[in-house]
Design brief:
Chains A, B: Pfam families: Hydrolase_6 (PF13344), Hydrolase_like (PF13242). Two copies of one chain form a homodimer. By secondary structure, chain A is an alpha/beta fold. In chain A, 33% of the residues lie in helices and 19% in strands. Chain A has two domains: 12-56 and 199-267, Rossmann fold, CATH 3.40.50; 95-187, Rossmann fold (3-Layer(aba) Sandwich). In chain A, the strands form four sheets. Chain A has a six-stranded parallel sheet with strand order 5-4-1-12-13-14, sandwiched between helices. The two termini of chain A are 18 Å apart.
Chain lengths: 269, 269
């Protein structure tokens, strides 16, 4: 990416960063950092720019997630993470909903304070190995038995990249249940506008002074742009060359990785 | 269902019958026959009407399936069964496709003669317990790695009824893979027109002289009507009262069960 045409970046005061595929590649082994990303996070903080991680990660609590990132060398805190589970808890409380959870075991503690007796909705996360036929059927039977089924999905990603290859994400299972029950899920997480607005509120910067950096052309780039942000796609993580011909979404710029994005942005300031 | 308004049934020369939900309710215990259905099959045959079973059953070979039906008292033979797997084998041969199978273990023998080395498509059936996260990921990774992914789905049912409740059908998993890979599956089985045409050819009766009897408002009734057949919905199996307000499909008549359908049809002859 040439540095020409980045004049708009001069107004930037804060960055929203996707995590998996931008900071690190996840995997059964815990994942591996993407070269230059830990240093890039340090440089963002040293520059005075604000930083918030905006992730659809639902395989662990934020506490656990941040511990893992810190062990990989990332200088981040729990308060710097905007994630779907806490946003879903707010929504459940507001509407008096009692969820049946089909989520990863390690995410369950995020819902510790929520009444889960006699469920009147289903909350779907990236349950990974918990996506058995028996578990998906249980969620299906609950939904199809409701007069007006309520399905809340923590993200709608198609797939993500782990160290040993691409993996199905929660969106695929959301579509399965939507079809089986003839309902439309409510998405909490990227690319939902309300979720980006929460992340911006936590960042403390208005949309027009924020840049989203992510590897997902639809959830990260498209979602952020619809909220009035600029958005960059990194060529790491789940990025595929065909993304550059996406019929609907065009990033404000492509960068090879987070380190390059930070280089160029800091040069504009 | 009153017997008035059935004048059109006088032209009938053959019946296509759905199986699960019409002849019997399936289940882990092998399933239970629906009252009066075995006798109804005998009466159809005694009347001289032709009969063909037109099923999306993909949890067993036709041989195994017919053995089970005969054990429940149904006088049917393998030649009287039109099922998706043999139709899929014809399609695979015609197009030189080598499938990766994500199907029920008991269906695998139907594909014994098909070259499955170095797969260039995925065939999806009602795999039930085989729908693990690992297996769905394997199918997904194969598809996403193809230049032009080919997904063949043996039916697209949303769910079916077993003796212990409603169960997710292959269509839900088809939607999951369609979304994850951004492809459209080719459906072999009801409601595909080509599949009904095969069943009519095997029945040996033109569409306008055939009646389809099924419990699925979309796959059975809608599919058959689009081929120019009359179609009845039984109030057994997965039938739900809300089907009677379906926005797109209206059966030629409702009947409480197969026995009642046969009673009324035979009275017209």
């Amino acid at each position: 990416m040439a540095e020409r045409g980045w004049g708009w970046a001069r107004a930037v005061r804060g960055l929203l960063l996707d995590v998996s595929g931008v900071l690190y590649d996840s995997g059964a082994d815990g994942g591996v950092p993407i070269a230059g990303s830990a240093e890039a996070v340090r440089r963002i903080k040293a520059s005075g720019l604000k930083l918030q991680l905006c992730t659809n990660e639902t395989q662990a609590t934020r506490e656990h997630f941040v511990r893992k990132l810190r062990a990989m060398g990332f200088d981040v805190s729990v308060a710097e993470v905007t994630a779907p589970a806490p946003a879903a808890c707010r929504l459940l409380r507001e509407r008096g909903l009692r969820p049946h959870l089909l989520v990863h075991d390690d995410l369950v503690p995020e819902f510790a304070e929520i009444d889960k007796t006699n469920p009147n909705c289903v909350v779907l996360g990236d349950a990974a190995e918990n996506f058995t036929y028996a578990n998906l059927n249980e969620a299906f039977q609950l939904l199809i038995g409701m007069e007006k089924p309520v399905l809340i999905s923590l993200g709608k990603g198609r797939y993500y990249k782990e160290t040993d290859g691409l993996k199905l994400d929660v969106g695929a299972y959301m579509k399965a249940l939507e079809y089986a029950c003839d309902v439309q899920a409510e998405v909490v997480g990227k690319p939902a506008k309300r979720f980006f607005e929460s992340a911006l509120a936590e960042l403390g910067v208005p949309a027009e002074q924020a840049i989203m950096i992510g590897d997902d052309i639809v959830s990260d780039v498209g979602g952020a742009q619809q909220c009035g942000m600029r958005a960059l796609q990194v060529r790491t993580g789940k990025y595929r060359p065909s993304d550059e011909h996406h019929p609907e979404v065009k990033p404000d710029a492509y960068v090879n990785n987070l380190a390059e994005a930070v280089d160029i942005i800091l040069q504009q300031l």
